[in-house]
Amino acid sequence: MKLTDLLSSLLPVRVKGDSNIDITGLTADSRKVKPGDMFICLTGFTVDGHEFAAKALELGAACILAEKDLPLEGTVVVVPDTRRAMAQLANRFYMSPTSELKLIGVTGTNGKTTTTHLIDKILQDQQKKTGLIGTIHMRIGDTYEEIKNTTPDVLDLQRSFRRMRDLDTEYAIIEVSSHALDIGRVRGCDVHTAVFTNLTRDHLDYHVTMENYKHAKSLLFAQLGNRYDTDRVKTAVLNADDPASEMFARVTPARVIRYGIDQEADVRATGIRITAKGTSFMMETFAGNLEFNLKLMGKFNVYNALAATAVALAEGVPLEAIKASLEEVTGVDGRFEAVDAGQSFTVVVDYSHTPDSLENALVTIKEFAQGRIFCIVGCGGDRDRTKRPIMAQIATKYADMSVLTSDNPRSEEPEAILADMVAGLADTPNDRYTCIADRREAIAHAVSLADGQDVILIAGKGHETYQIIKDQVLSFDDRLVAKEAIEKKLAT
Predict the structure, then answer these.
(1) Where are the beta strands (DSSP E) in 191-277?
(2) CA torsion sign, 384 to 385 to 389 to 395?
(3) Nearest-angstrom CA–CA distance, 281 and 289
(4) Which pTM does this prediction carry?
């Protein structure tokens, strides 16, 4: 694409050099520059991309996008905000792929992954071709790829959407994080349906206040556009039981479908029954009522099913078909996933890494547990310290024995993180918890104590297959570690 064509909708802009050159790619990573690329200088928390502009030209970059004049021999495009410009340029370079897709974005503190997978399941069962982007992986066609962030950066995101459309994908279903919304990763994305799961304490190391956190989430709904197209009707799907939905309903011009349990809603679950084998309830909707019998456990999964049902109904899927699809789902990777190595007791691995999600998981376990409850829980390093004592309090409130341990300590000392957690347990008897910094040892300890009809919850990492300690990324999978500990116990 000619640089003049690429910049045609960008204002204000100044070009120093040849504006008639060909641009064959976009990148903001100087290590990935290829001949013909536009190198975009981004100012981050620790690195300023402007410092690598000269290196990018040496590697063959056709031009530089910057926020200031640079003394370089080559074409330099100067704009006030390179991050904002990058979103416009990515959308244009990849030919506005989301205008050809039905993009379903799911945001919220908890439940994003499960909800996106449930929506994906329903639509695939309707013979719709879908793509999926989220915490666990990205799927384009039949190809699964690992991703670094829950929501990829704007260049990777638009590139991925173009790849989807080139394979005739009709629906793209993505998890949209608050970070992505705040820094503009989804700018330029023409969202078809926006879904809100819930808003609970998390990411305050970044957002500082819950009000800032809520505002970031609200951007997804405000960005649904301000026009009513009969062939591309926009929909906001909101959790009626979460107070934040009131604000989101105010900021969006789209039609609103509310789902919930406790409050009146367009899609509502009543008569919920939770057992060790699943969850049953009456699904009451504007399209009719049906009894649902899910293999998924817990009230939180009822919310996820309600959200997915609201989306599917908005897309014209019959309620009977939604029921058939959801009742087939046995689980989502690392989300309340059972580990079975032939033991009598139950072991569950769950991604619950926020106070609300941990409480949801433990409350669900108390619904069916007939023995003792053990909870293995840690908190990530270099992240929100204020939630650490709260996580410990919740664990000891619901579990008979809690094992406080490491999650991803990153640059922090595990013992320091554990001290922050224990600080919240001044009124908790010492025999209700123990601290074991080594996560493998912590899991083995809980397994050694469990017997009969006991239940062990291993919380925090879920699907993750690594542990970050200092600058090392080490292989670690809670499910495999638990299985090894169980097998060792059974062998003795």
Answers:
(1) 191-196, 235-239, 255-260, 267-275
(2) positive
(3) 10
(4) 0.89
